[in-house]
Structures are given as structure tokens and as C-alpha cells.
Design brief:
homotetramer, 355 residues, 5-stranded antiparallel beta sheet, 8 helices, 18 strands, 24% strand
Amino acid sequence: MSSSFNGNIKFTIFGQSHSSAIGVTIEGLPSGFEPDMSELARFMQRRAPGRNEYSTPRAEADAPEFVSGIFDGKLCGAPLTAIIKNTNTRSKDYSELKYKPRPGHADFTADERYHGAQDFTGGGHFSGRLTAPLCIVGGLCLQLLKAEGISVISHIAELGGISDRGELCSTDGKNFPVIDDDCGEKMKRAVLDAKADGDSVGGVIECAVLGCPAGIGDPMFGGMENRISALVFGIPAVKGIEFGAGFNAARLRGSQNNDSFAVENGKIITKTNNCGGILGGITTGMPIVFRAAIKPTPSIAAEQDTVDLRTMENAKLTVRGRHDPCIVPRAVPCIEAAAAIAVYDALLEKRKETT
Amino acid sequence: MSSSFNGNIKFTIFGQSHSSAIGVTIEGLPSGFEPDMSELARFMQRRAPGRNEYSTPRAEADAPEFVSGIFDGKLCGAPLTAIIKNTNTRSKDYSELKYKPRPGHADFTADERYHGAQDFTGGGHFSGRLTAPLCIVGGLCLQLLKAEGISVISHIAELGGISDRGELCSTDGKNFPVIDDDCGEKMKRAVLDAKADGDSVGGVIECAVLGCPAGIGDPMFGGMENRISALVFGIPAVKGIEFGAGFNAARLRGSQNNDSFAVENGKIITKTNNCGGILGGITTGMPIVFRAAIKPTPSIAAEQDTVDLRTMENAKLTVRGRHDPCIVPRAVPCIEAAAAIAVYDALLEKRKETT
Amino acid sequence: MSSSFNGNIKFTIFGQSHSSAIGVTIEGLPSGFEPDMSELARFMQRRAPGRNEYSTPRAEADAPEFVSGIFDGKLCGAPLTAIIKNTNTRSKDYSELKYKPRPGHADFTADERYHGAQDFTGGGHFSGRLTAPLCIVGGLCLQLLKAEGISVISHIAELGGISDRGELCSTDGKNFPVIDDDCGEKMKRAVLDAKADGDSVGGVIECAVLGCPAGIGDPMFGGMENRISALVFGIPAVKGIEFGAGFNAARLRGSQNNDSFAVENGKIITKTNNCGGILGGITTGMPIVFRAAIKPTPSIAAEQDTVDLRTMENAKLTVRGRHDPCIVPRAVPCIEAAAAIAVYDALLEKRKETT
Amino acid sequence: MSSSFNGNIKFTIFGQSHSSAIGVTIEGLPSGFEPDMSELARFMQRRAPGRNEYSTPRAEADAPEFVSGIFDGKLCGAPLTAIIKNTNTRSKDYSELKYKPRPGHADFTADERYHGAQDFTGGGHFSGRLTAPLCIVGGLCLQLLKAEGISVISHIAELGGISDRGELCSTDGKNFPVIDDDCGEKMKRAVLDAKADGDSVGGVIECAVLGCPAGIGDPMFGGMENRISALVFGIPAVKGIEFGAGFNAARLRGSQNNDSFAVENGKIITKTNNCGGILGGITTGMPIVFRAAIKPTPSIAAEQDTVDLRTMENAKLTVRGRHDPCIVPRAVPCIEAAAAIAVYDALLEKRKETT
């Protein structure tokens, strides 16, 4: 539980926003696998802060250093530990927050959970910065999946009230990950408008896993929905997830929602994909499709109502520090990472039962 | 993974729709606890089939028999196994389904997962009937939570395009679990309309956990969202989940979505609850609120397109057997069960770290 | 932890000596596998009580009934639950034991663990009877291993001061599982002597896994020693385990204890096997050899010193009921079961990492 | 499994003998706990190499650096990662070993396990050096246990054929951890004799956990024997473990082996402790006593028989590099660490079930 994922792959994400380093310890990736480190760096870069006007000016190289588990460029079977040094921290920004929890952040709940011992600087272990180690694991899984013909694509489906349009395709390589760049322009404007107001916006990310064979996943608590959501809700700010037609399926009749089977080129497909490629928790062989709702960044410029934990009285707070007016673009690779881990882990689950 | 939940409480749900019995084996509930068996029976009854015209005519007593783990009326510390005999099975209804997978069901994916060895009668292990054992675990957790002042309430928030109205309150005891009975009447009509058309409808269930203290839950993969969704997606037909403002939060600005803190009667509260009682995965002390999307029952009367797995050709299928035109009312206690297990398990997690 | 084993195979053993049934719920065995039920019954029979003068007169059929997980004679992928009804219980024998814990039994420690709520009749969940479900799991794993050319053999290496002699071979099929039947006769006499004195004897069981390929097992906590001992200590009365030369290795010099490698028929072997077929936790391809120490049955006829938990005063106790003067012969298949589970589970672990 | 321990405390040990660092990532230790870092350093020092003529001349500072999880000197609730840099590595010593596995080492089995991708330098992940991170976890648990009145003591019970004498007491602070220093002198001579011969010796370590309350531990696979052995076999070179009278219990009659209960100063004790403080897997409140057999260091000076993995022919090998003629003294704190982790983890297990 907690900061550990404990499936066929096991990993623990460690570090705080302002500790000397953040990182991840991973077990269960296949020995002999030779990661493409420049491809991993490129993937990490999609999440990295400070790249443009839509994200926090905090610039971190975010280059993982592997201190163990790699020998001669290959995974050697021993646990992999990757570390990212925290270089550009400004802890003094946060001193007031010890007693005045920021609305929408985990300051208050962490204080309750850890009885005041939590690292409150920069959000501590709850910082969005901790998605960097998740992207290390996910980036490696993406490479492993690619070797099996499986890819993960995603885009910003909705942001600031604007919806993306067009057929789902990879947005990797785009500065702003949308299918329709005109929609993207409108979304960017919504972000900049919010920024100008000292405010923030959220959005919805849609993700698809392509090429996954039928028969992956398990019943009940091992379903692909459970597996994917167990990881996706590990990304801060995700407040909802839906698969296929999702909440809209709840508004359809069975005759509309059911996906008919058909044979196409000797392969069984479904004519529609309202189930999001998952029936009974198990893949159909069609794309696994899901959408995740990302709440607006809670750090905003306006003065907000909070409490003073020392005096137990109402108080006012103005959040300082460097923040993203919208974290949705940077969350896109995180969602892909989460999906990749979930799918790769489920593949291993099936593999062990197959003679 | 799979049919086992493996937290501080551990349980495995076993059985198939037409095996000699279904049931559950549970470890980790507190020794000395004396379950109220009539209260449990009453809870199970809310999920039981065959009670009215909205549900399947398959009548099962659904009375759990505890074959182990109880001594002198109390949990004795040893694993608890409860069994529900399958008495009213009609396997011959299903013989055609071996080769013609039903759209919307797990027939095809189970065949792929288990290479043809799956029990295809009545949906096998994928049947909604397997939520009965989940309700045994959940019913016991509800009693344990009650002893700590925590309760779980829910209602049908939406069904067949009709939304429920009014302030969230318990609907336990109602024949049709809605807040506003007028809305309920309209929903029932939508179900009967669908039934008359040989069709089915889905819906959305809203659930709240009341009285849960602040500071429960863990960061990242141990967050309350992760914990609850890991269980809720174990209920067949759930295709989406959202917490607090959920997908709507993605459409708000930070200044609208942030929940201000305030002191009320010496206790810290949030003035709104867009976060659904969860920040950073940890409870705020406000109600934990979530909504689950339930797809329409895939078993419908109309002839459907499918494939014949023997010939790999397109085929037609008319599903026979007894089915619910809408499983949403019966899913309500299942959702409560899932929420209760998640919250009780998270309470244990915190307990062990507290001196 | 506790009554659940949670590896690639997962199972929970449930039941008490005098509950309505005992049994096991298993997940992770391969779908499509067709157990040989008569072979399983034969294996169970080797452990069953009441077969001769060396064991308890309590006669139980010990025939497992599979209530789920099997369809058309094959494992269908869903959890397997097997139940053995408790038919021949005599609970009144045990009433005094509620307050007077038997020396050498778990009565006192269970009372402390469960605060008086434990099922104290017949040893409750701590009864040796609970090894029957372990033998169900183990019996299935033995069949799965056999299909991969792996077998498990064992014998009573020592009993009542008498050591068995000869080269390790299967003793399956023998009424008294020793290599040298003359030694066996002497051992039987030692058991009958103890029985005549109202006393009991313990012994040492030696077990070997043959045909296991090199490269199975994992470093540190996943070593074959850890895996095997984690299961073997689950058998009541086991108080020690050693691998290969074991405690004797501690008395050798490195030059004596090291096993030289050599090539034999194109395969790498070790000329000796002091390491018990395990180096660094991983199999060498030579037989995995271990010995388990079984303490003498604590139930003896003589009056013993104990305490009265009500008055917290010293007290006397004479244990009544039906007991084995020596459980070592019946523990032999249990040890084989434990070894089979450990090895099969480790095979699955490697399988999932292999492309 | 593998290099992760996954109980209520979770940790993964990472690193190889010659990777840039070794270390450990830990989850589940209590927030607010303030480790005594100088006490931890002192404990680590007992295991550190290069301190005297009995151990390897490889000198490593072995000072752990905590890169996360600590804030203001206290555990902050987030995962703890400690790193020890590898500074004094001499990889060139090991080049021949890639194709000529050393007898008694994991070279061959790791090659089989990881298909040639393993880090073979200095034993890689299988090096005894990896017990340093285990001592970090154990050292912290020892401090946590101390706060609950529980201590762990141990001594070399046997080395090179010489047995220690006297009543079990702490040997912490002694340069050579034995009860009777005269015995210690003889043991040291045995080590130096072996060293002079280019050979090595093994030994037996006896360990006791004092002050542990009755009622800790769980039945079957959660018994204290299982829990302790699961960790102790994680220490390289351990080939056997026995609890209380252990293998000797197998030679006693029940009347001799049973520990009578008695009331002493209002507390229930056992008059003897043949069960090693454990009945049915659960603590009696008496000292938990066990012994672990340590095989002689496999690295010896003499030329040995091995194979050449390239040619699959027999070969000769002379092991170079720096090695301990006897690792038993350095293994003493590792055994204490393993015991401390097992007991602390079991305490947490009980805590969560207690209201």
C-alpha cells in the first residue's frame, strides 16, 4: 500500500519535494533487458517542469541516475534504484504552511496522518514532483511493451471547457498534446487566461493502449479497470476515471451499449468499443480506452480561507512559490506511465499461468 | 490480484454461478467481534435476487453458512469461511454460449484468458451473483465501522436519464433506494419500459461514508481513491468512478474547486466538499463521497450479433435465461460493501502505525 | 501472513478441529489443469488419521469436496475451494482446557493472541488436522511438478534415537516411510514403547526434490531456503530446518564444505551436495535436500503442571482425548506438500520473468 | 519475494557489491520516530568489514546517507531510502569469474537465473555486503523495540568445533561476541589457523529476543518461526535454523520436551523453554531463542575444481580478492537485525487487530 506498488512488478517511490533526492526502487523487470536510456530521458522530458509558459518555472534536469540493478547496460536481475537529485529547491517559500494548510493540498490531511511529523515543504511526499519516479518505471514498461507490439497513446480530451476533436492518435512529440491543434490553441489560451487571473484550470486526459492481446487481466479485483485505476489514482489531482463509454454508458440502454462481436480478417473484434476494450476485467483485444479527470491546480494566487493549526482559528493564506497554472499537459506522460505499468504487470500475471 | 483482496483484511471470493456453492474466505477481522447475524442477513437481503419485478426471477435464499472462524458466536481469530449454496441453477439455459459469446459479457474474454477451460454456465465466476460474498465481507465491515461511529449511505443518483434529488441521506429500508421517491417512481417506470422492450438500463450510484476521522488513507497507491476504486471495480458492470466533484472538477477553476478550511465547533472542516473528503489520498474528516457508473445489463432479449468460436464466422445469438432489466438497485448495497471494506482496511493501516 | 500463503499461488487454510468443516481456498493454479482426483485421494490418505496403531484413533474420511473452481473435471481459472467436513468430533473432551492450557500446545498462546475468543476445542485452528488442507494444495502441486519432471521424496531420517540408513529414495507406498525397513521396525518399537508409557516421541524427516532445473529461486528473502521454510514451519511441531549439510556445515572448513563443479554428460553438476542443491537461494540443478525436526506430540497421558487462567494459580492437568504417540509418519506427506508448493511457486516466479 | 520483504514493514534491499551504491528503501516505520543516528552507526560498525584480522581487509565506511523519509530528524511518514556508497571496489579481481563459477558461491546459479545478465563482480547482488542495508532496517527496528522494552542479544554459540559456555547474555560491545572469553580465544585461534591454511570456518549463532510479550505471532505461515526464518535465510551462508530445543527436541520424549506452565510473580511462565518461547507460532512471553548455522566462507585460497561455462569443460580456479576467513562474528549483528525486524513486524500485525 501507500507509496509501493506490489504486483508482479514491485516498486516504491521515495522522496519529498525538498529532500536531497527523489527516486524509485523497482523489482521484477526482466534481467537481460537493455533500456534505451535516451528514449527514457526523452519520455521523462515530456513531464519535466520549466519547459514553457504553461508550467512551473522550477527547472529540474530530472535525469535519473541508476545506482543499482544495471550491469553492462542491461538489467542484471537485482533491484533497480534510480535517483533524481533535487537541486533547485527553495524551502523558505513554505515556512508559513506548517500551520496554515493550503486549500486543495494535502497539507492538512498529512498533518493529521503523520501527527505533525510530515515534511511540509513544497508538498513533501505529496508533491506532483513525485510523478517523475513513476515516469521512470512507466518509461521502462513502455519500452518492454513496445517489444511486444503494444503502445500507449493519449491526449488532452478536455481543458478549460474546450474539447479536443478527431480520431485518437499519438500526440507524442507535440509541444501541446492534442489531436486537433486548433483545439489546442484554445486550450492554451484558457490556461493563459487563468494564469493572468492568478487562477488555474483542470482537464480530462484520454488514454488508449493499442495492440494488447485479448485475454489479459483477471476477474474481480484483478480486472484491468482495477489495475489501471490503482495506478492512475496514484497521480496527484486525479479525481475520476472511466473506461470506454464510462459514465455515459450509465445513460444508455443495453442494446445501445453492448458491443457486437464480429470476425474481421480472421480475428474476433467488437464493432464498437463502449466497453473500452475490457469485459469482465479482461481485455477484448480492442484498444483499452480510459479517461482521467484532473482537478485544477490548487495553488492559486488569490488569498484563501484556511485555519491556523496552532490557534485553531480561522485564518487567511496567500500561497507563494512557483506553480503550474495547469498541470494537465505534464500529467499526460504520467497517465501513459501508469497505464503502461498496469498493462505490463497484467501481462506478467498471465504469463506465469501459461505453460 | 484477481479474486483476492489482499490488504490488512484479506479475502478471496470463490464460486461460479452454477458451482455447488459460492462464498468467501476472510482473514484479518478482529477476534472477539460478535457479528449480528440477523443484521447481516438483512443487509444481504437488499442485494438478493427475485425480490421484485425489477430483478431476475432467480430466487436464492442467499443465507451464508459460516463453516469456520466463529466460536460461541464470536470471531475466534481463525479465517472465516462463509458459503452460500447454489440451489436454483438451470445450467441447460447456457449450453449455446460455449461457442457464442454474449455481447457485453465476459464469455469471450474468459475464453481467451482460460483457453477454453472457463465455466461458461451462467457467467461462471464472472456472474453478478459473486457480489453476494462481497456483501458478506462488506456487511461485517459495516458493523465494525458502526462501532467506531462510521456509517455508509448511498442512493441511485441517476437511472435511465432521471436524476435523484435532495440532500444525501440513508436509503436503507426503502424498497427503491432513492432520496426523492417521485424520482424513484420515474426511474422504476424507465426500468419497466426497458423490460417491456426486452432491453435494459444502467445508472449511477452515489455513496458517502460519514463519520470517518481525518487522517485515514495513505499517499499514492494507498490513497482512499485507489483503495475504494480497487474494490468498486470488483463489482461487475462498474465502468467509472469519480470522487467529490470528479469529472466536473476538471471543468472548474482552482478558485472554484478548492475547499476552504474553517473551524466549526472546535473542529476543522471544509466549507465545501469538492474533494469528496479526500486530499492527497487521505481523509479530511468530511464525508467521503463518490459516484460509480453502472452499465446497462448486457443480457437483453433482442437477437444480437456475435461470432461462433468453432467456425470463426459471424453468428446470431438470442440470450435466454433469467436476467435483471436493471441491476442498479441491487448494486447499491454492493457499492456500500465495497466502500465499507476499503475504509475499514485503511483504518487498520493507520492503527498499526500509531503507538 | 497467518493462515494465508501469498506467493504466485495464493491460498488460505481455514477451519478448526471441531468446526463444521476445514478446507482451503486456492488461487493461481493453472486453468485447464485436470487433477487426478484418485491420486490426490491416495496422497491425502498417507496423512489421514486412524489408519494404524501409531496414530490417533480419530477416523476421518478426509475426502475433499471441491465446491468451486472445477468445471468439467478441469481447473476453470476461478478460485478453488475444497472442503473436508468434520464428522467425528468429540468436543466434550476439551471443556477443561478452556482454563488449563496444555503444556506444549498453543492453548495458552492462542488465549493471549485472541484475548480468550479462540476456539479451544481440539486445538482449534492450531490442530494438526489443519495439515489436511495443506496436503490438498501440496497434492495438486505435486501433480503439476510431475508434469515438468520434478518429484518429491522423503523419509523418516530419525525417530526415537534411531536413524534410517541407505540411499535416499521414495518411500511412497510403504506403510512406514523409511528407506531401511529394519530401521523402521526399530522406530515402530520406539513409538509403541512411548505409547505404552503414555508418552510420545519426535523425529527428523528428510526430504528431497528431484529434477528441479538450475536457476529457480531468488536472492535474499526469495531464496529456496526461505521459501521452503516459510511453508514447512507452517506444519505444527516443526522446530528446526536445515538444508544440505546444514548445522554440520557450520562444523566444516570451506575446503570440505564447498561443492566442486564438474561437467557430466554435458550438464553442470556438483560433485557433492553439501549446499542441498541451493546456492545464493537459487537451485543448482542437483537435488534440493532438507531436514525438518519434529518435536514429540505434546499430548501425553501423564499428569502435567499447568496454571488455572481463572485463578492465576498453579494447577494439575491430565490430557484426555485421542492422540498420536508420534506424528512423524503422518507428517511425511505434509513435508512433501510444503516442499512441492514452495518449488512450484518458485517456478512460476521465474516463468513470469522469462520471455 | 526476492530482495523485498513485504510485511507490515516493507523494504527492498538494492545494490551490488560493485555498483555505485547499495541501500534500502523502507516503508511502514512510524512517523514521528526520531532515530538515534549515532546508535545506528555503532550498530552498523559491528558488521563493518576491515576492522580486524578476522575479517576482509576491504574497508568501507558503511555510513548510511538518508536521502528521503526524514525531516527535522524524525521519520516523516514517507518512504525512507538510505544509501551506502561503494567506494573501495576492485572489480578487476573478478574478471575470470564470469565464466568460472566459484564453488560455494552464487556465481553459477545467478548465471542460470539471469541468463548471463547478472552482475558477477564481487558476487554482485549476492555479496555479503548486502547485509549492510539489512542492518540499517534492523538497527532502526532494534531502537523501536527498545522503546517497548524488548531487546535482542546473541553470541557465537559454536565456531570451528568450539562451543561457547555460560548463560546467554548480551555480547554487544565485545570485540569478539561470545559469553565466555576463553572460548572466544579458542575460536579466534581456529579462525587464524584456517586463515593460515588459506581455508575458512563456519559456526552457529544463538540469538534471543527478551521482553517480548505473550501473544505475538500468528498461526501457520505467520508463526514466529516462519517470520524469523523468512528473514534469517535472507543472510547469505545461513543453511539451518532451529528454535528452542530444535533438532534436539526431535530426540526427546514429550514428557521431557513439554514446558510446564507455572505462575511466577503473578505472571504465567514456562519452567523450561524447550519451545524457544513459541507455541503454535505465537510467543509465550519467555525469551524467543533460536540458532542459525553459518556455513564456512566459500572463498578459500586453494585451487578448486569448477567448469568453464564457455567450453562446458572442467576447469581449475584459484579465487583471488579479499575475503573473510570466517564471517560468523560479522554475521552476529545481521542475525540480530533479522530477528528485530521479524519481531517488530509481528507486533504491528497484532496491533492492527486490537481495538
